[in-house]
Amino acid sequence: MSRQKTRWTVVCVFVAWLCVLISGCAPEGWEEALRQPSENASLASETKGDSRLRVIFLDVGQGASQLLISPSGHTMLIDAGNNDREEEMLGYLQAYGVRRLDLVIGTHPDADHIGGLDRVIDRLDVGEVYMPKIQSNTKTFESLLNSIRSKGLKVKTAKAGLEPAWDEQIQVKMLAPVTATDDSNNMSAVVKVTYGSTSFLLTGDAEAESERAMLESGANLRADVLLVGHHGSKSSTTAKFLNAVKPMYAVIQVGNNSYGHPTKTILDRLAKRQVEVYRNDLKGTVEIASDGKGYQITTER
Predict the structure, then answer these.
(1) Computed from CA positions of residues 182, 258, 267, 234, in that sequence, does the dihedral angle turn out positive or negative?
(2) Integer Cα distance of 212 and 156 in angstroms
(3) What is the pLDDT of residues 69-119, one digit of tens each?
(4) For 152, phi and psi rounded to 5 degrees?
């Protein structure tokens, strides 16, 4: 084709497209696609088409929150930090391209775990909500219940033995609470997530009493990745429990605090067993991704 014909073809294409714009006959949705290419790309890269299970231990200071994204893009949020982290939680979810949470678990009523859940439920489409059967008379707990009701959702009871349906490739099993108690921490929902030959044990604030009940229940506690109970308090992660879990990696969700978390006792106990430890206060947000066979660990800093 001659150079003159090439130029004429380009001009014709341009004029035709210009006519479409002027006449308003552009394909439906094209403007939206042009306005938000980065958001759509983010969603595709963060929650779709990734063969890995991503477990993201969000840095929410002295609190806890884990975001899980399955290989097929299903999402789960366990806890959401304290009340003052609500907007930060929403920012995290937006950054990871999350618009819907298929499964939400509030491990127990403490504000540093459920404080941000009300705002999250208000803003996002939510599938199922699980919480243990324990009440609290705090405004934080009341606000969360109001948000759940206003969405027309019902709370399902989190307890040992349940296997919530989430992703057909992944087993989600609750190992605690095994028995009822008046102690909020020991009523924490403990969740084991298994993908292929890899596994995560997410323990909320479960303390020695709950750990003993899990051991006595005969549940398979073995997991490669352990979320250290109660932010590294010496009330949790007993030697017997740690021996049963046998983790390779441990994450401690902790920020600046006056409680002495994580305690030297627990850090020494983990070090003795040569467990590789990641802390939010030192590393920021920690992501441990699994392909069903091994792990890829990335940190914010």
Answers:
(1) negative
(2) 24
(3) 999 999 999 999 999 999 999 999 999 999 999 999 999 999 999 999 999
(4) 75, 25
b/e for 52-81, b at 16 or more Cβ within 10 A? bbbbbbbbbbbbbbbbbbbbebbbbbbbbb
User: Which stretches of 158-248 are assigned E, i.e. beta strand?
Assistant: 170-176, 190-195, 198-202, 225-227
- Tokens in use for 196? 């292929």
Element (H, E) at 78: strand 75-78
Supply angle C-alpha 159, 167, 275, rounded to 5.
70
- Structure pTM? 0.84
Token reading at 32: 């939206």
Q: Please name which of 262, 203, 257, 204 lies closest in space to residue 234, comparing C-alpha atoms.
A: 262
Residues forming a β-bridge with 170: 167, 195
- Angle 96-101-105 (CA atoms, 0-180°, nearest 5)? 110
Nearest CA among 36, 72, 78, 82 for reference residue 52: 72
Give the Cα separation of 98 and 66 in Å (integer): 13
DSSP 54-69: EEEE---SSS--EEEE
Distance CA 205, CA 219 (A): 18
Could you count the other beta carbons within 10 Å of the beta carbon of residue 164?
Answer: 18
Distance CA 42, CA 37 (A): 9
257-273 b/e (C-beta count within 10 Å ≥ 16 → b): eeeebbbeebbebbeee
For 113, the token pair is 């775990």
Determine contact, residues 207/229, Cβ cutoff 8 Å. Answer: yes
